[in-house]
Write a structure and sequence with these properties.
Layout: H1 8-28, H2 31-39, H3 44-49, H4 55-58, H5 64-69, H6 77-97, H7 105-133, H8 139-165, H9 175-195, H10 211-244, H11 264-292, H12 296-306, H13 311-320, H14 323-330, H15 332-340, H16 344-373, H17 375-399, E1 406-409, E2 412-413, E3 418-419, E4 423-426, H18 427-454, H19 460-471, H20 473-489, H21 491-500, H22 503-511, H23 513-519
Antiparallel strand pairs: 1-4, 2-3
Length: 530
């Protein structure tokens, strides 16, 4: 048994378990929490406001350098933060299980924010651990197993938990009991991390820096972000509205026109310009604050990354690689409901019951193929497949509902998942969603492996958090543009355009071919775990 626990198979198993631990708390501060608040009778405005508890996931890169720099006593840098964050999540869920949102919303909201912070911290250390412990030839399979565990946990906490809580067809558990059960699962995950997860290689040590300066630097960067946010909301948003209002033939927001309904397309573009203004101010301000306060771990991490050849081109590839996929996915549900006329139940069955499992299959298949193809060829093949998958929705747009016939999915009850009434399933819809989910799973496995390959093991928590933040930029950009474009040119042309938008990422990938192949070093013996 001791020998097996040193093997690559055991390492992969633990990566899957950590992926499960990473995915479990996400819905518990998101969709599952919203269901609990709704059942408890809270108004929609309060529920909408509480969606802000997820903000720590966006800003986790701010404290990631501290998780690179500081090492909890006795347990080591990665294992220590892993166990502490998981114990914190378990304790927070247990406390939430003893509260009632209807009678103590302030305490519940504070616990929800704490849950998001601890969960985001766990994500930082799991991403860093996976990057540290996997050999180059294992990154593809390791990332796919992480996605597998993550998706399974989201199915449990975000889907099956709602079935359990259903007063008619559920298992009799209320949300308090479900959160207590999830706390027990996170406690079990902490025990696994403490006793069974392999240690990182002995040479993987924290960077040396002045601890006092790092703490001062963190506070300085945090204050810079707060100042940037205040500037964005108080100056950037009105400025963006004033600049764009003439283009839409409206007056800027003021007391004179508050009674008129806002133009939804204008609001999307104003939000985008506001975001760009905020980034243009906040990023240089935070960089200046980090330099002035001598935030050594962050500064050295950024310096280490940008000392790499073609660092800027790699950032461009990170933004562009999934841009076409993001364009097509931005309005898929709206397209299927309003553009084609599919029923909600049909979309739900195909997307949630069938589609999410196909994403898992795609991720596992992508990881297995990466072991044969290597990093560059996998990114290229899966990128081309992602491009072609957009044409599936184009085919739905030009052919329409029922073009390929369909079938009726009979009711079923598998205990964990059930369908109470027969539901029609369109063959063309099933084809388009299946291809999209399979290729998205493959592309995600290769993309995560690519991010891991770019990280230096002294700064993996910081660099992976920053690189993954850059990967979200594309999704932010496409929001306003996709709605305006679809309304202007129609759905068939929109999906053709989304296909074309996948090309810049593939061209950048080909441009960086030699450098990406250099990241994918030949197979060799793993350093012994210590």
């Amino acid at each position: 048994m001791a020998d097996f626990r040193k093997s690559g198979a055991w390492r992969m198993l633990m990566i899957g378990v950590l992926g499960f631990a990473s995915g479990l708390p996400l819905a518990l501060s998101g969709t599952a929490m919203q269901a609990w608040l709704t059942v408890d009778g809270l108004d929609i405005a309060t529920i909408g406001f509480l969606s802000l508890v997820g903000l720590p996931y966006t800003f986790k890169f701010l404290w990631a350098p501290l998780m690179d720099r500081f090492e909890p006593p006795w347990l080591g840098r990665r294992r220590g933060w892993l166990v502490l964050s998981q114990l914190g999540i378990a304790a927070t869920l247990a406390l939430m299980s003893r509260t009632s949102p209807a009678h103590g919303i302030q305490a519940f909201a504070l616990l929800a924010v704490l849950l998001s912070f601890l969960s985001a911290s766990q994500d930082v250390v799991i991403d860093a651990y996976r990057t540290d412990v996997l050999a180059p030839q294992e990154r593809g399979l390791g990332s796919s197993l992480g996605v597998f565990g993550y998706r399974l946990a989201m199915i449990l906490s975000g889907g099956i938990a709602m079935v359990w809580a259903d007063p008619v067809s559920g298992s009799g558990l209320n949300w308090n009991g479900i959160y207590l059960l999830m706390a027990g699962l996170m406690l079990a995950a902490a025990l696994v991390s403490l006793l069974l997860v392999p240690a990182v290689p002995a040479g993987n040590v924290a960077p040396h820096s002045n601890a006092r300066n790092d703490l001062k630097g963190f506070v300085a960067v945090l204050l810079a972000v707060v100042v940037g946010y205040q500037f964005t909301s108080r100056v950037g948003a009105p400025l963006a509205d004033a600049v764009l209002s003439p283009l839409f033939g409206t007056a800027p927001a003021s007391a004179a026109n508050l009674a008129s309904p806002p133009n939804p397309d204008q609001k999307k573009w104003v939000d985008l310009l506001t975001l760009l203004i905020g980034m243009a101010v906040t990023i240089p301000l935070a960089w200046w604050a980090a330099r002035r306060a001598r935030f050594e771990t962050l500064n050295r991490s950024l310096g280490n990354y940008f000392s790499m050849e073609a660092a800027g081109a790699f950032l461009a590839l990170i933004i562009l690689y999934k841009l076409g996929d993001a364009f097509a996915g931005a309005l898929t549900t709206t397209f299927l409901l309003k553009g084609v006329g599919f029923a909600q139940a049909e979309i739900g069955v195909v997307n949630k019951v069938i589609g999410i499992w196909l994403t898992i299959v795609g991720a596992l298949a992508g990881g297995a193929l990466m072991m044969k193809l290597g990093l560059f060829r996998s990114l290229l093949l899966f990128g081309v497949l992602q491009l072609l998958s957009n044409l599936g929705f184009w085919l739905v747009a030009v052919s329409g509902k029922g073009a390929w016939g369909g079938f009726s999915l009979p009711p079923f009850d598998w205990g964990l998942v059930a369908l109470h009434e027969a539901t029609a399933v369109d063959n063309l819809l099933l084809f388009a969603v299946s291809i999209e989910n399979l290729t998205a799973g493959m592309g995600t496995a290769a993309f995560v492996a690519f991010l891991m390959a770019l990280c230096n093991q002294k700064f993996t928590a910081t660099q992976f958090a920053l690189l993954s933040a850059f990967s979200a930029i594309g999704r932010v950009w496409v929001g306003p543009m996709s709605g305006v474009l679809a309304a202007s040119v129609g759905w068939p042309a929109f999906f053709l355009f989304s296909t074309v938008m996948a090309l810049p990422g593939l061209l950048m990938l080909c441009y960086l071919r030699g450098r990406i192949q250099a990241l994918d070093v030949p197979r060799g013996a793993l350093p012994a775990d210590d």
